[in-house]
Protein: persulfide dioxygenase
Amino acid sequence: MRNHTASFSSSSSSSWYSNKLLFRQLFEKESSTYTYLLADVDHPDKPALLIDPVDRTVDRDLTLVKELGLKLIYAMNTHVHADHITGTGLVKTRVPGVKSIISKASKSKADVLIEAGDKIHFGDLFLEVRATPGHTLGCVTYVTGDAPDQPQPRMAFTGDALLIRGCGRTDFQGGSSQQLYQSVHSQIFTLPKETLLYPAHDYKGFTVSTVGEEMLYNPRLTKDEEEFKSIMANLNLPYPKMIDIAVPANMVCGLQDPSAKPDEALSK
Ligand SMILES: N[C@@H](CCC(=O)N[C@@H](CSS)C(=O)NCC(=O)O)C(=O)O
Ligand SMILES: [Fe+2]
Structure:
């Protein structure tokens, strides 16, 4: 059991969602990346976190955090991105006390290395970590807490494991179409059907989907595993333009001090 500052307050499920969870979906247009800002605005400190910030839009994101009166505590990644440089290192240099988070399986450096089952607390809210490898070895999905006082419907931040009507490619960074198929079916499609899905990218103009919608209409993941593997083997996508710069940089949070020591700030 890893310790953290978790406490719970009770409030009515019909009214607390908008009163308590602040949620913003932000877009970086060059890499078509979504960054998510979440905060517990019912808590006196208004603790907040950023999921998948991009270096180019860190100033925009931090201005918003300041304007909303939030206290940023975490800057976290769903995986080692290949198409852009993460903003987590830059956020740390701009806001003292912020901790970077990535999965242990990614073999990257960050202040906090998370694993499946970990809970990331911000105020009275938390995100649960689910391992969803396949796009990369260390991909995780962050899901809002499974408890009566947590947001309903639940929200899943899928990174590149599941994209709306698509999924992450599996042809580099330890990718595996078999693993991705298993990850999505066992870790995402088992969530309640009304769970809101928020991916790390969208190339078609979508912003949000649901588990039920993707189980019906995802053109790749509704197929059986063999057909899925064949689809993925024949995508023939060009490599991301920034891959050779982005991957090594993102192994150290973009620019984080490599001497930073991981700490244990989570609970299981
Ligand atoms: N053209 C972009 C890269 C596009 C790309 O490869 N996207 C990745 C997610 S970023 S690692 C992907 O998995 N796409 C799946 C798909 O079906 O499009 C660039 O050059 O940066
Ligand atoms: Fe990716």
In short: Residues 17-235 form a domain with the Metallo-beta-lactamase; Chain A fold (CATH 3.60.15.10). The mean pLDDT is 91.
